Amino acid sequence: MTPPPPKYQVVADTLRAEIRSGTIEPGQALPSTAELCSRFDVGAGAVREAVLILTHEGLVDTVPGVGRYARKSPAPDQG
Q: Is residue 79 part of a domain?
């Protein structure tokens, strides 16, 4: 039996799909950490890790003290 993916990976995969599909539009703010914690039933650490992954992939920009935003020109799908 395969173990379930880590919680941060579920958050990252879901947000990645929403950004690439346009559900979260380019330039749109991502939901707050509290909203994401509630939505995915995870802690803030899982949300932070997911956002770091998406930032590294070029899908999210973080403006310290302001928020996190979907990039206006998301990186092409590497998959």
A: no
